[in-house]
Amino acid sequence: MKLYFSPNACSLASHIVLRELGLAFELVRVDNQKKITADGDDFLQINPKGYVAALQLDNGEVLTEGAAILQFLADQAPHAGLAPANGSWERVRLQEWLNFISSEIHGELAPLFNSAIPEEVKTLFKTTLFKRFAILVQTLERQDYLLGEQYSVADAYLFVVLRWAGLFDIDLQKWPALAAFQQRIGERPAVIAALAAENP
Known about the structure:
The chain is α+β, with helices and mostly antiparallel strands. It folds into two domains: 2-80, Glutaredoxin; 89-189, Glutathione S-transferase Yfyf (Class Pi), Chain A, domain 2. It contains eight helices and five strands. The chain has helices spanning 11-21, 43-46, 66-76, 89-109, 119-140, 153-162, 176-186, 189-198; strands at residues 2-5, 26-31, 36-37, 54-56, 62-64. A five-stranded mixed beta sheet has the order 3-2-1-4-5. Helix 1 links the parallel strand 1 (2-5) and strand 2 (26-31). Helix 1 (11-21) runs parallel beside helix 3 (66-76), helix 1 packs across helix 6 (153-162) and helix 4 (89-109) packs parallel to helix 6 (153-162). The radius of gyration is 17 Å and the shape is globular. The chain starts with a strand and ends with a helix.
């Protein structure tokens, strides 16, 4: 498998999960601005959507969208327990969290990267984001992980997007449950290894 990534982008979640599962993969860096891979290939020919993550399978198929990639990877090694079994109520709960993270956390943080957006508009995004943080806090104050006591692909995804908060002067220490979550996930060997590989 090949994982197309940009350092510290949302593709980091897929990278972490690949390492958690011990699956064989090749990392291919993508220049997000030029849409060119480190090999000089046109990334738009690999993923016409133009953004990472993209996972190319050994048969040539390409899978995009982080939530789909994360679940696909977890299902390659179900014994690892990074996703509940397909068809179970717990799997539906995982999908619920993945959608929430994608639309409400990732979706509110992503526009803050756009320097053309006025500060007053960014403040509106932050206001909504902080309301979503409150929902996360309700869960993470009573349990270590989003699904309970079992670490899952949703936790890897949340960890990655919450890392962006510091780029916008959002101090997670204001939400101790989120800060503790970030520390807990950040200490996992697969997370440490993925970050080191993306930021040599």
